[in-house]
Each structure stands twice: as C-alpha cells, then as structure tokens.
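Chapter review: from sequence to fold.
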Amino acid sequence: MFEPLLQLIERGKKEHLIKDMDTVWLLAFMIGTINEIAKRTIYYNYKLTGELLEANFQLCWDGIKA
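The token string follows.
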C-alpha cells in the first residue's frame, strides 16, 4: 500500500528535492502531520478548506524539502 509513496520519497531524495534522511523518519513526520490535521478538524470542528489544506501542505513540504 505504501510502496508508491516510498518510491516517490526515494526519487525525491535522489533528485535532491527531499532531505537525505531515513525514509522511515520522513514517513513518520508526514503521516503524523496528516493524522494531526485530521484529528484537529474533527475535535475542534474545523472546516477543511482548500486554503487550510494548502497551508498545512506547505508546512509539511517545508519540513521535508532539501
């Protein structure tokens, strides 16, 4: 199930677009971020707008980009 994502991360590392660190930790960061966004939208009844998704994507991208 995660194989396409793993391949994408490896490709990003080879192309120096993503930090060169263990893929396990990159995935943990990304999945943790996604889980927290989902939980907070439910717990605090936030509407998941395109603007909110874009802002959170940018935060995540800033965390993994090389």
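Two observations follow directly from the output. The mean pLDDT is 94. The chain has one domain: 3-64.
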